[in-house]
Design a protein that fits this description.
Distance between the termini: 32 Å
Helix content: 25-40%
Radius of gyration: 27 Å
Structural class: alpha+beta
Largest sheet: 10 strands, mixed
Length: about 950
């Protein structure tokens, strides 16, 4: 089993909790006979015949389109059934949340009760005698019911292929670094495989080793998990063969040259068990990682030390780093502390590079043809296919679509003592971006040892990953605690000599050891879908026992390579056991057993739970136990004294913090999460977790509801929806900005008018919301435009003079200034929904309060705006405000592929990024989970 060990001085409560957990994990699986009677399931979310569980996942369940479907869509605007029928309900909540009641929830959400009512059955498929797939008329969601375990999982794979075959194929190729040969050489495709393959550059033997390890080390549950996964793959392949032979397979295979439209010659490659691990590596890297970035942190620390000297520079840097800010919003707010990844009192082993010596490790070599250029050479398409020619000329996804900096997911839960019914209420879901089809897919699974409805990432959907069971529901948000470290390995030459910076040997525990070179050679040619000209390149990474090389530098004049080592490397599939437990009604029976289940998920997630009796929370992740004195925020020397405790490079395993040391809670008055800090003492893995965070938009509203009492599903949904259209800067920071500029009378009429507009917007709730459903015109549009133009200018004017160009540039490299929903702002690109996750909100907040003489806990080391002088600060803010007022909307909101210039509603709008041939209309911006549940269980088993 993987080692989840405490420190040598572990407390008694840790030992007891670990023993209790171990006993639970050894509980036997329910025996699955060759064939069993259909399981009897009681849906405890029904109250007098009406469901109190609801969910939604836009745009729709159906993510497959035949070639005829794609052509019809392009020519006539039609869409396949159930491909877009949840989009309108999701979008309508923006205009409908004000008058929302419990009875109206299904106007905006699906009924998420188990089964399909009589009269609502659209189709029934039985790909094997031991399983049926029933789809409902309203949504087309597959309700999979098996009499054997194998049949249930086969049905899950079959249904997944019905709904997501093309998308699953894309993602297995992204994970393997083979997207360009499969889908074309567009620059965005080159970027996607270059983004993901270096994170998990596995050989086929590496993939297979993960499967063997799960079978051999995870006991009976591991054996069952791999059997379930194989049945799932078998189901995918059954549909793959049937759809190919029947000519109803996704049309993208024709457009990318894999199958001939006329003769049907060609092949959709069979799926393998190792493909699931490839997909899991993409999903885990995108949503469940945490930490890393220590080289960039070291560069900003060095810049601070060069600006202010070592002692003062370190103090300044730490004040921006905000590892454990006392003003930060927390999920566990009852005062419980969970110390982890803290700054050591006596740091040792830090490996700061020599100034100016750091270079990124090259990834791409031997480019030919269109590699790196994206030059086009369109093929001559048959006339019938010309309407879809160039479908993927810009890639299967635009640049930034899978940016790991995008924030994900939120959760709002209120315990029963504060609700109208006396039962806990939860509104929660993952914010996984907007795609067509979605990365997630809805399903219901009922079979021996499995009973759940919810979502799973397509291609790894053996189990529901977030959803509901018979009498409980659960969800997750990305936690991003520090499970990735950077090591500086000293380079060497075999037999002695002076190494160069590009040496391929390094010192491992005193021995000069060769790096392992991993390569991927890709070549592509133009197709109907992607006219990118012929090209090729070679991807190369160097792997060491301390991870993959990311940078080269010198350290005290000696050449080193910086490597990235994460605890989940080589363990992407291990979390399958935790998800298996979540779907097992005999395992999850209450909040404590739920926490035990998610403790077996290795990725960094915040997990939330609600049943009829209690709400609960648990933070999962393989948190390494670091050597004493090691600062997790900075690179560390690759020496045995500074390795993770118990580190075994052969299996990439170590000692991990035990169950009791992870942030957790049962029965707190309420819980909120929007990718914020988890608990006191649980230090952040990056910048941007200070006094203002987007989670404040939830915390303030839910706290007010709890104070009033009588919380309902509708009132909690309203709080989420209102936060989802609110500008964080307008609600949290505009009052301080206005206090500074109004500290003396404003005599300039233009500025006075702008300040009045901003204040009126603030008083109205600082919302980015249209005046009426369908108007596509924001209320207080001028104030929104001014805020969008003003923010980046005011931040630079406030901080750059005091920090100096070098340090300001370095700190903005650690944390970008802005992340408004407008298409031209932030790291995630346009039309992506998620906004205000990270930016200089807390820096501005603390600095302005310091200027105004207000109390600040955890202040910045210096006051920057106007050099700490209120009049000078006011002058700087007014000067940038004047610039902003003069900036036309066409410059604030430039045109893009979806919008004309000068349209703030459209610039903010959510566009589902097509992974295939079916597109969807833009919808109103919402900062909201992609898949969302609203649940309130009235009873329990």
């Amino acid at each position: 089993m993987r080692r989840r060990l405490g420190s040598p001085t572990g407390r008694l409560r840790t030992a007891c909790a670990t023993l209790a957990l171990g006993t639970a994990l050894l509980a036997p699986l329910p025996r699955a006979a060759a064939e069993e009677p259909a399981p009897t399931v009681t849906d405890h979310c029904l109250n007098e015949g009406r469901s109190q569980c609801a969910d939604v996942l836009p745009p729709g369940q159906n993510g497959n389109a035949t070639l005829v479907d794609i052509l019809a869509h392009r020519l006539f605007g039609t869409r396949p059934g159930h491909s877009s029928d949840q989009l309108g309900r999701y979008d309508a909540l923006v205009g409908g949340f004000g008058g929302l009641t419990d009875a109206k929830l299904t106007d905006f959400f699906n009924d998420a009760s188990f089964g399909v009512p009589e009269g609502q059955v659209e189709s029934v498929t039985s790909p094997r005698p031991d399983v049926t797939i029933t789809r409902d008329r309203r949504t087309g969601v597959p309700h999979i019911k098996g009499t054997t375990r194998y049949g249930t999982e086969f049905g899950a794979g079959y249904a997944a292929a019905q709904d997501r075959l093309w998308m699953m194929d894309l993602f297995r190729h992204i994970g393997r670094g083979e997207l360009t040969p499969f889908a074309g050489g567009a620059l965005a495709n080159q970027g996607l495989e270059q983004q993901f393959w270096p994170q998990a550059p596995y050989t086929e033997a590496d993939y297979e080793a993960q499967i063997v390890r799960i079978r051999e080390q995870e006991g009976e549950r591991g054996e069952q998990a791999m059997a379930d996964a194989q049945a799932y793959v078998d189901g995918i392949n059954a549909y793959r063969v049937q759809s190919k032979n029947g000519r109803y397979f996704p049309g993208e295979y024709v457009l990318t040259g894999h199958v001939d439209a006329l003769t049907n010659v060609g092949e959709i490659q069979p799926f393998k068990l190792t493909d699931l691990i490839s997909i899991a590596s993409v999903v885990g890297g995108q949503f469940g990682g945490g930490g890393g970035g220590e080289v960039q942190a070291a560069l900003s620390l060095l810049a601070a030390q060069q600006t202010y000297g070592v002692v003062e520079g370190t103090r300044v840097w730490e004040s921006f780093r905000q590892r454990n800010d006392p003003e930060a919003v927390l999920t566990v707010h009852d005062g419980t502390s969970f110390p982890y990844a803290q700054k050591p009192a006596d740091p040792r082993g830090a490996a700061l590079p020599d100034p100016g010596s750091v270079t990124a490790e090259p990834l791409v070599y031997d480019r030919t043809g269109s590699a790196g250029t994206g030059a086009k050479s369109p093929v001559r398409a048959p006339k019938v296919l010309q309407p879809v020619q160039g479908l993927f000329d810009d890639g299967v996804l635009p640049p930034g679509a899978l940016n790991p900096k995008r924030g994900m997911s939120n959760a709002l839960l209120v315990s029963g003592e504060h609700t109208a019914s006396g039962n806990p209420v939860a509104v929660f879901g993952p914010q996984t971006g907007y795609f067509a089809p979605q990365l997630l897919m809805l399903q219901e699974l009922q079979g021996p040892g499995i009973s759940a409805r919810g979502v799973a990432f397509a291609g790894v959907g053996m189990y529901v990953q977030m959803g509901r069971g018979q009498d409980y529901a659960w969800s997750a948000t990305s936690a991003a605690q520090d499970i990735t470290d950077t090591y500086a390995v000293e380079l060497c030459v075999p037999g002695g000599g002076t190494p160069t910076r590009d040496a391929d040997h390094y010192l491992y525990r005193g021995a000069c050891t060769p790096m392992e070179r991993l390569e991927k050679r890709n070549a592509w040619k133009p197709t109907v879908a992607d006219g990118t000209a012929v090209g090729s390149y070679r991807l190369q990474v160097w792997r060491t026992k301390y991870g993959v090389v990311t940078h080269r530098a010198t350290l005290d004049g000696k050449p080193v390579a910086y490597t990235s080592l994460r605890t989940t490397y080589g363990h992407e599939a291990d979390s399958i056991v935790g998800f298996q437990m979540l779907n097992d009604p005999s395992f999850v029976r209450d909040a404590r057993s739920f926490q035990q289940a998610v403790h077996s998920v290795d990725y960094a997630f915040n997990w939330f739970y609600a049943d009829s009796r209690t709400a609960a929370y648990y933070n999962s992740g393989l948190n390494p136990v670091r050597a004493p004195g090691v600062d997790p925020a900075l690179p560390v020397k690759a020496e045995q004294a500074y390795e993770w405790q118990g580190f075994d490079p052969g299996t990439n395993s170590a000692a991990y913090t035990p169950f009791a040391e992870h942030p957790q809670s049962i029965g707190q008055d309420y819980y909120i999460s929007w990718n914020n800090r988890q608990a006191d003492g649980y230090n952040t893995a990056g910048f941007g977790f200070g006094s203002v965070h987007r989670a404040d938009l939830l915390d303030d509203r839910v706290a007010a509801l709890v104070a009033q009492g009588g919380v309902t599903r509708a009132s909690l949904t309203r709080a989420m929806a209102e936060a989802g259209v609110t500008d964080l800067r307008g609600e949290q920071l505009l009052p301080e900005l206005l206090a500074v500029v109004r500290s003396s009378p404003v005599t300039d009429p233009q500025l006075a008018a702008a300040i009045g507009q901003l204040d009126a917007w603030r008083a109205a709730g600082a919302q980015r919301k249209e005046t009426a459903p369908g108007s596509h015109t924001y209320g207080h549009a001028d104030a929104v435009r001014i805020m969008d133009a003003w923010w980046p200018l005011l931040v630079e004017a406030e901080f750059r003079p005091g920090l100096g160009d070098g340090l300001y540039r370095a700190l903005t490299g650690n944390l970008h200034v802005d992340e408004s929903p407008a298409a031209s702002h932030g790291p995630a690109g346009g039309h992506s929904g998620s906004a205000f996750q990270s930016g200089w909100w807390a820096f501005v907040d603390k600095d302005l309060r310091q200027v105004l003489g207000q109390p600040v806990s955890g202040p910045l080391a210096r006051t920057y705006c106007g050099g700490g002088q209120l009049p000078a600060c006011r002058d700087a803010l007014l000067a940038t405000l004047k610039q902003s007022v003069a900036k036309p909307a066409t410059e604030v909101y430039p045109a893009d592929g979806s919008c004309r210039a000068g349209d703030p509603w459209c610039s903010d709008s959510i566009v589902h990024r097509a992974l295939g041939g079916i597109t969807h209309p833009a919808i109103h911006w919402q900062n909201r989970p992609t898949y969302q549940q609203v649940v309130e269980f009235p009873s329990h088993r």
